[in-house]
Amino acid sequence: MTQTTTATATLDADLPPIIPARRLSHSGMGLLLGRLQPLAGRVYLLVFVLFLMSPLLILAAAAFNDSSFPTILPWQGSTIKWIVALFHDGEIGRALISSGIIAAGVIGLSLPVGTAAALVLTSLHGRTRGVVYALMVSPMLIPGIVIGISTLLFWRQVGVNGGYFLTILAQSSFIISFVMLMIVAQLQRFDRTMEEAALGLGASRLLVFRRILLPYLRPALLAACCIAFLQSFENCNTTLFVRGTETPLTIFIATKVRTGLTPVINALGLVMMVGTIMGAVLWEIARYRRAVRSAAV
Amino acid sequence: MTEIFDRFGKPLGGIFLGLALLWLAGMVLVPGVFMINASLRPHLPPPLRGGELDVYVLDNFAYLINHVNHGRIFFKTVWSSALVTLVTLLLCYPIAFWLAKVARRWQVAVMLVLLLIPYLMNEVLRGLAWYIILAFSGPLNAILIGLGLMDEPVRWYGDGGVVAGMAYAYLLFMLFPIYNAISTLDRAQIDAARDLGASAWRIHRRVVLPHAKVGIATGCVFVFMMAAGSYVAPALLGAPGSRWFTQIVYEWFFEIGNWNRGAAYGVALMAMCLAVVLGLLALFRVNLASAVK
């Protein structure tokens, strides 16, 4: 801002400033506002980061409080017994395994179906494409509990009750939408002439798919795999209705809140947080490096 | 339609088409029809199902409308979800603008990590954090009393607590779409507006906001939908007097055992969400394809 002003000043040394509106900000109220705005911005940024982080810090801190209930007030002494207890807690272990089984099932189902759906969608044109697109994203726009309810009611007719199978199906029905969108985004940059070249050289269509398109989609499939895992692992609303007698981690924590919460749950939160931070930092470093490298090219 | 077969051949194209159909028909549409079907039938003991009493009626919906509390809770859920949406929008817009147009590259990197940490953990743990903060003898009351802003602790659990917890839980779903939208705005447009003498307020109103429209619409759609359909936050942060509509749906299914009425309540929730989503998209003049991508 000041740079442009000086540049103008040196260029048109003996002319009046050509930007009169800018001059306003150098006088009285304008000056005050000009000084206050960045300050207000910084304060807001600080408050926002505090708002973002303090719940996590409090959640983590309560894991070290020697109190039978998760809280930071009153502080009854520091202890690591809750973290030790976490690793000996059979119920949490079982809940984790249950969540893992569901997530694995969801990934196994959503990746192929989502890819197939993306390929079908991109082969359509005009109005049909619009309609199919709306249909394919609709599961993302419907509340999770509705998806759980409809899956439960549908399968009851054929005598299948809630459990792993229904949970995987219900979660997948909207996670496939996410996978589909990610694959479509990657497909948009795909160069179809590569397929044609391979076909021209005598490759079968199956070979072309396996050796050209699939490797090209690999990064998107990997990202979709992560998203599918996270979505499945943290899902509560849909799972609640179709879980039957299974107790995945989110349900386990939610029921604990009602039936007697101990700081072991905070210890679990802390462990997940540490894992998350490490993952996020690594991911962000990789992204930052890529951005710097592509900026350098 | 034939393009998929031309490209991948009959067998492979057939598999793709089959999988896509299996998903759309078998996992989305048909279960949806079954839900609507169940919502229109009375709740009968198993021997009477399919008998002469098992006819289409609107009783389950009439019950919702005529019930002393359920109708009220339904609209409270709508308003509170709208409030959550508005709060997240106001909180996120300045940050999204800062991230997209002001912050240096390392600042963006740090901020994205800070933002991702709470969101890679699950919603229940985010709710649990607020459960601790808002407790009667918890840190929020202690700080406010310590600062002399209040004389006595306040019971935060209830509608206020639910809205606060949800605003926190869904922040990212508002921030990222707006950030993405503003990122594509050419800096030169802002500079041009400023050089022509526009105030900061005017630049936002006339240049940045119209450009961020798609992102704002997407954010609002997702936050509203998630807030209205959330079970965890109200269960954790609510009070007996502040029940959310989803909790009533759950009760019909697993506490009272009247699945037909539960289905009707679910259909009402779905219809409301779809109406709001379509309404928001029309309001912002954004089409579905650019909002959800």
From TrEMBL, chain B:
InterPro entries: MetI-like (IPR000515), MetI-like_sf (IPR035906). The keyword Ribosomal protein does not apply. Residues 74-282 form the ABC transmembrane type-1 domain. The keyword Transferase does not apply. Keywords: Cell membrane, Membrane, Transmembrane, Transmembrane helix, Transport. The chain crosses the membrane at residues 12-36, 78-99, 128-150, 162-182, 214-237, 263-284. GO terms for biological process: transmembrane transport. It is found in: Cell membrane. One of its GO terms (cellular component) is plasma membrane. Its main location: membrane. Signal peptide: none annotated. It is a multi-pass membrane protein. Belongs to the binding-protein-dependent transport system permease family. CysTW subfamily. This is ABC transporter permease. It comes from Stappia taiwanensis.
